[in-house]
Amino acid sequence: MFKPFYRLLIELTNGRWSSILLKKFARSPRSKRVVNRFAKAYRLNTEEMETELSGFPTLHDLFIRKLKPGARQVDPGESSVVSPVDAVIEDVGYITPLSEMEVKGKIYSIVDMLGDKETAKKYMDGVYMIFYLSPSHYHRIHSPINGKVERQWTLGKKSYPVNKWGLKYGADTLSKNYRMISEVRTDSGMVAIVKVGAMFVNSIETTHTGTDLKKGEEIAYFSFGSTIVLLFEKGCFSPDPAISIPHPIKMGERIGVFR
User: Fold this and answer.
1) Where does this protein have coiled-coil stretches (predicted)?
2) pLDDT tens, 51-64?
């Protein structure tokens, strides 16, 4: 009973005009009035921000805040893979031979997520990891690996919630939401970085130029809470066995190693 009600509610509130209004407000000077209340409500760590709270002209600027140098340490291990974001790891698992993954009891198609069968084939029997960013998290995205971007593309239009309720009850959020996909070649194998848009706000802004990625380097940012999905080619990556689900993590912390 809850699932159809949840989907109907989201459909009614996730329209073009509601998205425009939310985005317009967050970027307007009027939103400065809620910056302090937002920071307090979500218990933001103001000590690590590069800019003082009073210096954010809009709510959007607070969403995409930068941190002070040294606020995050990137694991230096030569074979380590690090978290691309501050987030909660919601799931870790293996992609089936049918190019599917099970998240919160729901089956997602890697073919639908990536947009074509040939691309999805590379990740059959490989590992997936899902990172959820709430509105309280630091929204900038960093490269989890050293490598070279071979292809980047976008898919989807609307964006539905990607929190635990969205993953469980939503209509294929990870494979239907607006998303930007970067496929990266590493010395150990292929990795897909799937940046998934959140409810209402589809904005995923790229900040990196060129094709060479360095572990820990900023590559993009979300304009609101959202999700990152990492897909690893079969046999190239082992997740850290210390990770339990759900698992809070900071950008730069080790999530596993290349084999």
Assistant:
1) none
2) 999 999 999 999 99
Q: ∠ at Cα 38 (18, 243), nearest 5°?
A: 95
* CA dihedral angle for residue 181, residue 228, residue 5, residue 2, rounded to 10 degrees: 130
CB 173 within 8 A of CB 166: yes
Query: CA angle at residue 73 from 255 to 139, to 5 degrees?
Result: 75
Which residues, in sequence order, are CB contacts of 29 under 8 Å at separation 6+? 57, 58
Catalytic residue among 142, 182, 188, 247: 142
8 Å CB contact between 191 and 217: no
- In the chain, where are the structural domains located? 2-63, 80-258
Task: Give the long-range contacts of residues 98-106, CB within 8 A, separation 24 or more.
Answer: 98/124, 99/123, 99/124, 101/128, 103/130, 103/167, 103/174, 104/164, 104/167, 104/168, 105/168, 106/167, 106/168
- Which residue in the list 86, 91, 182, 223 is annotated as catalytic? 86
Rg (Cα) of the chain, in Å, rounded? 18
The answer to whether 137 and 131 have CB atoms below 8 angstroms apart is no
Choose the catalytic residue: 80, 143, 226, 247: 226
User: Is 86 assigned a catalytic role?
Assistant: yes
Closest to 136 (Cα-Cα) out of 27, 66, 49, 42: 42
Per-residue pLDDT tens digits for 128-144: 999 999 888 999 999 99
61 is catalytic: no
pLDDT at position 36: 95
Phi, psi of 213, rounded to the nearest 5 degrees: -110, 140
Whether 99 sits among the annotated catalytic residues: the reply is no
Average pLDDT over residues 77-100: 94
